[in-house]
Amino acid sequence: xxxxxxxxxxxxxxxxxxxxxxxxxxxxxxxxxxxxxxxxxxxxxxxxxxxxxxxxxxxxxxxxxxxxxxxxxxxxxxxxxxxxxxxxxxxxxxxxxxxxxxxxxxxxxxxxxxxxxxxxxxxxxxxxxxxxxxxxxxxxxxxxxxxxxxxxxxxxxxxxxxxxxxxxxxxxxxxxxxxxxxxxxxxxxxxxxxxxxxxxxxxxxxxxxxxxxxxxxxxxxxxxxxxxxxxxxxxxxxxxxxxxxxxxxxxxxxxxxxxxxxxxxxxxxx
Length: 270
Hints:
This protein is of the alpha/beta class. The protein has helices at residues 38-46, 96-99, 141-144, 147-159, 175-186, 199-208, 220-232, 245-254; strands at 2-8, 11-16, 26-35, 48-49, 52-53, 58-59, 63-71, 83-86, 89-90, 110-111, 124-128, 132-134, 167-171, 191-196, 212-215, 235-240, 255-263.
């Protein structure tokens, strides 16, 4: 099979790889669509995120949709021709954290496309069936790749206990920030203010539910946010997807007493 391999920062080559062999609990998936995450861009541009360094050729990508072409002998929940998405973080299943049900916090999680683990930018993927989920017929492969970033938004809203009629700020509306808007709407937020440097992202945000958009232009955005926060009596929640130091400073000043800050983005300096 063919695979897109990151050989060095800003250098990707299309290489031949062996087609994977599945185990009794696995499915073989023909990959149809892959989303590009901000982490993929970090590895592509810098070859690292903090202490996670690309030390050998790496297949990137972890937001994946495809079609099952083969199932292991013990797999009962899936069959060939099923359209599926995957959960890219594979926990050990044995540690106290996993047994408690919070397997997303497993110290030994194997996360696809995080060095040294290959990702899904290849023709075929072997994946555990119990971390593979069917796609509804009306959802395209491309839209289905957003299942993983959307889960980030939903989980953040759950952890922040985002309540109906709350006032929310989302700083940075790339794909995760846009998914955060959808999650905030689902949890009943009354106002959803968003900030970004790109006007076209602000327009998309408005189309899917933001109520107040601010383009970042030096101090103008700070003054606008301050004014809006004063009108509301402070925001209930500020969610940062940018990882920028300035965003945390803004978040503290915008919150009402007892408000909450959610941090999702990678710091740019790592």
